[in-house]
Amino acid sequence: MKFDLEAWMMSPYILMFIAVFTGLLFGKIKFGKFNFGISGTLFTGLVIGWWVLGYANGFTQSDANFSTAQKLIEAGVISKNFFTIFLILFVAAVGLLAAKDMGTVLKRYGIKFVVLGVLITLMGAAATYGMTLLSDDANPYQVSGVYTGALTSSPGLAAAIETATGHSTKAVADYENDTREGKQKLLKLLDPSGRLTPENTPTLTEEQKKQFIKDAQAGIGVGHAIGYPFGVIIVILAVNLIPKLFGINVESELNQFRKEMEEARKSKGEKEIQEVSFDLLAFTVACFFGYTIGVIQIPLGPLGNFSLGSTGGVLIGSLILGYIGKIGFMNFRMDNKILGVIRQIALAFFLAIVGLQYGFKVFDALAGSGLYLAVVSLVVGFVACVVGFVVGKYILNINWIMLSGAICGGMTSTPGLGAAIDAVGSDEPAAGYGATYPFALLGMVLWTILLHNMPM
User: Fold this and answer.
1) Fewer beta carbons below 10 Å: N end or C end of the chain?
2) Residues lower than pLDDT 50 in the chain
């Protein structure tokens, strides 16, 4: 009998299972009256991801498991395919759970979700821009990537890369006509050592131009990778700690919200649709339909293309089908307990995978190389959450159950939604998330493009 311990430790399946197991144990630990619950898998995933990537980097070509280590490094510890499938399962379950109240929620809160989606992303962009101006050494492309990472937005990342490409191309093309200060900033980004100056570099070579554009694109990716986990951490802490800090009685808010929804449903005279325990065919169709919606590109003229992505598409698709309830022999109204189990399993693995993918970058940032970017992501996430809460609670008067989901939707944070559901002990926040998310995505794209056109 032979057992390859090294290969076993670098198996993506083993890493996921260990991260979930240890994370759920960590989530049970009480810090006063607070515990992380299912979100604990994110934190153990971060530690395990950091450790295993360092372990894999220690293999040399002469080692038996060198190729296995290289595969792990190239995949970023865990393949993105694992991330996507668990994300789809989680979002589909959440959408179907929240769908029955969606029409009533939109009728009651309507424009308020539009305001929150646009405002939260705008304030995040404003905080990002302010942090860029505070440091002469900050790479503006990396900071822009932090914005999309802190708000956990993949569509925002795509828009940032596309905009950075155009911005950097124009910058190198206009280099000769730029001011000395402008040239100095560009050259510092091109060569941080400071050897290049406007005096010894009156023009840029084609190689230097290509390198600058390539570095700009890479900078977006670096900033996003560092900002993402910190953005997740901020929104998870926000939905758990805000009720405690501001004296919000979650149970009372939940009862009040359910009473309002029940009265609204009765006044509308909605037809009751018989639930089934579980309809695998309908669940699969919801995933398929939603994913298809997510890949549709919507042209926005000079702003480029906009899409909902897998998260937004599956969420909207599930909400639509769940609201309709039944199509032919397919029933989209399923037992809450079964959908809840699917949601919990998918969320636990999804958060663990996020941690495994970003663990090394997080600890690398905290060690110093990206500390400023880590600080930026925390500031951006904090400002966005606080503004969303203050405006939503005290100006728009939104019930905390809906507001917790709306803040996560405004942050485009699927992990945050999972934490909100866990903290509230109910799936109702998903309706606020689903109503806010599309407008936040659109805001992310718009503000990302605007960021690159602001003087830095």
Assistant:
1) N
2) none
